[in-house]
């Protein structure tokens, strides 16, 4: 059984590119449906570049999320790993029946119908933040505050968390787009109080999760689960919003295209996560004709598969299989709301620079985001 080809590129290093400039995905895809590159934490990582193979892998129970199966040489902190499933209950690290039970507690709280009930309030939040930005004298960089604050304010609304700690959380989350090694601990420290406050609030998704949580879930577990919703909901939506606004105001959106189709196109072309989260082989296995040793780290190239010429209908933005993103409906609603509010309340809004002058920074596992988004809102 042949080994996967090794590709001499580093898709994890931070690189600044033009907003629509191709990244490393084309090189990876040209080498084969599954390839090897050097892993940031040492050794090799296998990257899947083919849509059909990716969907097969994302449903294969031999590929697990539990960091307990990471290569033994990896240092958890250096590799950016969560605690193992045995150390901390989490949607992103559990597998099998335990994950299914936890997912069943979340899903009814975040359906399209449930999140749509917050639609008017989400529109009010967007209108207020953009209206405040519009008072600036001249262009305003929406990546400076709006794209970070809006998803945090929304997640507080949906979870039932008070907003008295919002400014601290915004400041911490803004650091996540940098190479500051203290950024993640600082963000955890800022978001955990929001999670705890949401659980005390008695209303919203956090309270619903308390009621529906599987037997054996502790208060500490609940706080971490709510923290996970806050963190994931902020960091991914913040990145996507920059590309959404850029394309909405940069003449890229086709005339008459419905908002939901436009949001879908933006997310397919600019998924906020370039790769899936880590998966590891729980046993030696074969995938796509390639032998993978036990404890092999595996990623799916979401950005590459979404943009592949042969995959015009492909869309792995929110993943696939048992770990499909539970917050997908909320993220898409937030983006549709911003599109509608810009069109109705700020009809003269436009980019302050040509669309092609915008740049993004690709940071591998940390996703892609615009370096700046100067906009004239009136």
Could you write a compact summary of the structure shown?
This protein is an alpha+beta fold and 378 residues long. It has 14 helices and 13 strands. It has one domain: Cytochrome p450 (Orthogonal Bundle), CATH 1.10.630.
Features:
378 residues, three-stranded antiparallel β-sheet, alpha+beta, 11% strand, five-stranded mixed β-sheet
- Low-confidence sequence ranges: none
Any idea what the CATH superfamily is called?
Cytochrome P450
CA-based gyration radius = 20 Å
Number of domains: 1
- Describe the biggest sheet? 5 strands, mixed
Structural class: alpha+beta
CATH topology name: Cytochrome p450
* Tally of alpha and pi helices: 14
Question: What's the overall geometry?
Answer: globular
Helical fraction = 40-55%
| Average pLDDT, all residues | 92
**End-to-end distance:** 62 Å
Task: Give the topology, please.
Layout: E1 15-18, H1 25-31, E2 34-38, E3 44-48, H2 51-58, E4 63-64, H3 76-79, H4 96-106, H5 112-116, H6 119-133, E5 140-141, H7 146-159, H8 166-174, H9 183-201, H10 205-212, H11 219-249, H12 259-269, E6 279-281, E7 285-287, E8 290-292, E9 297-300, H13 302-307, H14 328-345, E10 350-351, E11 359-362, E12 368-370, E13 374-376
Parallel strand pairs: 3-9
Antiparallel strand pairs: 1-11, 2-3, 4-6, 5-13, 6-9, 7-8, 10-13, 11-12
Helix pairs in contact: 6-7, 6-14, 7-8, 7-11, 8-9, 9-10, 9-11, 11-14, 12-14
């Amino acid at each position: 059984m042949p080994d996967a080809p090794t590709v001499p590129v580093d898709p994890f290093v931070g690189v600044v590119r033009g907003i629509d400039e191709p990244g490393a995905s084309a090189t990876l895809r040209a080498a084969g449906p599954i390839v090897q590159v050097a892993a940031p934490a040492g050794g090799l990582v296998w990257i899947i570049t083919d849509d059909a193979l990716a969907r097969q892998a994302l449903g294969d129970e031999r590929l697990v999320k539990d960091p307990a199966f990471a290569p033994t040489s990896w240092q958890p902190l250096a590799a950016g790993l969560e605690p193992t499933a045995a150390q901390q209950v989490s949607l992103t690290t559990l597998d099998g029946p335990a994950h299914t039970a936890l997912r069943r507690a979340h899903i009814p709280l975040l359906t399209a119908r449930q999140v749509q009930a917050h639609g008017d309030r989400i529109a009010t939040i967007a209108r207020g933040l953009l209206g405040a930005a519009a008072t600036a004298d001249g262009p305003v960089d929406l990546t400076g505050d709006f794209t970070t604050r809006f998803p945090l304010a929304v997640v507080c609304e949906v979870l039932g968390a008070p907003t008295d700690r919002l400014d601290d959380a915004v400041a911490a989350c803004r650091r996540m787009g940098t190479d500051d090694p203290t950024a993640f601990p600082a963000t955890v420290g800022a978001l955990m109080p929001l999670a705890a406050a949401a659980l005390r609030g008695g209303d919203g998704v956090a309270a619903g999760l308390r009621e529906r949580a599987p037997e054996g879930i502790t208060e500490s577990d609940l706080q971490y689960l709510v923290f996970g919703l806050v963190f994931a909901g902020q960091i991914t939506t913040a990145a996507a919003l920059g590309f959404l606004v850029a394309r909405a105001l940069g003449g890229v959106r086709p005339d008459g295209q419905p908002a939901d189709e436009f949001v879908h196109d933006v997310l397919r072309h600019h998924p906020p996560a370039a790769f899936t989260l880590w998966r590891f082989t729980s046993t030696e296995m074969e995938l796509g004709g390639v032998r993978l040793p036990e404890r092999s780290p595996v990623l799916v190239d979401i950005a590459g598969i979404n943009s592949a010429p042969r995959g015009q209908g492909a869309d792995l933005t929110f993943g696939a299989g048992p770990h499909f993103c539970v917050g997908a409906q909320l993220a898409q609603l937030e983006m549709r709301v911003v599109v509608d509010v810009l069109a109705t309340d700020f009809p003269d809004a436009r980019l302050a620079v040509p669309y092609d002058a915008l740049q993004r920074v690709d940071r591998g596992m940390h996703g892609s985001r615009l370096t700046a988004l100067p906009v004239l809102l009136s």
